[in-house]
Design brief:
Arc Repressor Mutant, subunit A; two-stranded antiparallel sheet; about 45% helix; WH-like_DNA-bd_sf
Length: about 100
């Protein structure tokens, strides 16, 4: 039997490295069946460590889960999805994504 801290730690490490996790990945990481992986993912979602990223479908082994509001940060590291690029490059990427420039730029 695994404890919650071990499950949380390994899932968080995986999400930090890859940006998301699936039921299938949890099955492989812990050598558990689809039902146990589903229970653990549901608990992580209930505690807002993870949120569903995949649009449309709501179940299945390919649904991706990413960092939720309570997802822990790594000391001295950026949050998921953030870059280490200079602000000017981040602004350029934001402009391309939204089609709008920030005021004062």
């Amino acid at each position: 039997m695994r404890n919650v801290d071990e499950i949380d730690r390994r899932v968080v490490e995986h999400v930090w490295e890859y940006g998301w996790i699936t039921n299938r990945t949890v099955q492989n990481l812990f050598t558990v069946d689809v039902y146990q992986a589903r229970r653990w993912l549901a608990d992580l979602r209930r505690r807002e460590l993870l949120v569903q990223m995949t649009e449309g479908r709501s179940s299945g082994p390919g649904i991706r889960y990413g960092p939720g509001p309570e997802f822990p940060g790594r000391p001295g590291r950026d949050q998921p999805g953030r870059t280490n690029r200079p602000d000017s490059l981040d602004q350029t990427a934001q402009t391309r994504a939204t089609g709008h420039e920030r005021d004062g730029a």
